[in-house]
């Protein structure tokens, strides 16, 4: 089977899954370390969590994103991510669907074909073009952020670090906040050209 025909085959199978019981659900990309504290006042240690790619054609993954958008009451970006994924779920635009990527960090290790939305720690949406990405949204679970004893920390940075392992260049428009700008600057993003909120990170050439 030629490369082109194989691509068309995969795309058509994914479209069929939208209307049948066939489903390709979240895929584990890798395990990544994040900072985790067992109890209030204890030291943070590395803990492996799952970095997964969600499939916008999957009934289960769409439902997971819907649950997140409803449960994360302070997470407007989660609502936007679910909305964009749902548009793809209903779309016939092949190019649009192939370039949109949805990633999540979850404490769940097993049964990733049925993601537990309560274990999702962070999510993001990215538009992919070759080895470059444009980051549309990144959202950390507000319940994690406002947890009294900060069970996890640096989840946003962990998400960015993992994306950097897959892409040569990442661009984004930052939320207009000095706090958010500082976050991206700490993660080696720089203001691009003359736009204060247009930022980019680029892999250093070896």
Q: Which percent range describes the beta-strand content?
A: 25-35%
Strand order of the largest sheet: 6-1-2-3-4-5-7-9-8
What string, H for helix and E for strand, traces the elements in order?
Answer: HEEHHHEEEHEHEHEE
Detail the poorly predicted runs.
Answer: 1-23
- Put simply, the count of helices is 7
The secondary-structure class comes to: alpha+beta
Inertia-based shape = globular
Radius of gyration: 18 Å
Largest sheet: 9 strands, mixed
Q: What's the pLDDT, averaged over the residues?
A: 84
Helical content band:
25-40%
The count of DSSP E runs of length 2 or more, i.e. the number of strands, is: 9
Distance between the termini: 36 Å
Nutshell version of this structure?
The protein is an alpha+beta fold and 206 residues long. Helices cover 34% and strands 29% of the residues.
